[in-house]
Amino acid sequence: MMLADLLEKLTRRVENMLFRAVVRYVRLSEQGGARVAQVAGRAGETPDDVTVMLPYGFDHIPHPVDGSGHGAEMIALMVERNLVVALPAMDRRHRARSGASENGEVSLYDDQGQRITLKRGRKILIETDILHVVAVNKVIITAPLAEFSGNVTIGGNLTVAGDITDQTGAGNARSMAGMRETYNGHDHAENDNGGPTGTPNQEM
To answer: What global pTM score does this model have?
Structure first.
């Protein structure tokens, strides 16, 4: 057999093993712990139970194929006759419109416009409508400064190790400690003789 024939045979074998496929749907395997897909490959082939090779710590379920036949795409590899594995899917219908914009940045996004982007300068940008943090015991934020631009609602008690300051008080009375000090030491003129009163009997 000529070398050209051997190369052609090898090429056909590789082509039969590796192919681009459109994702029909993805589900969790009956054994659990793995995502499996049904895909449309060459010549209308629809291999079922294609194991999707997801990176450790990441999971996603691509949108199924739509009525026009367009869907997420993946590269599938037929390892054995009854074993097909695939790389994570990409979807041309829902490309990232923004997010990572500089070299080295990383973005996680979906088709709803939600994004988590690791920005340059050690900044993390989260874009969503509702940020829901579920913690069984405690949420700890360690930072020299935390800023909230909107209203803050607290369903339970508020305990502060430092002071509380607002923007409406006058002078020293802008902080809780200042208001307490002002109240505890204040006096005022009496109506009958104009003399100053004593300080309050009950202090804050």
So the answer is: 0.68
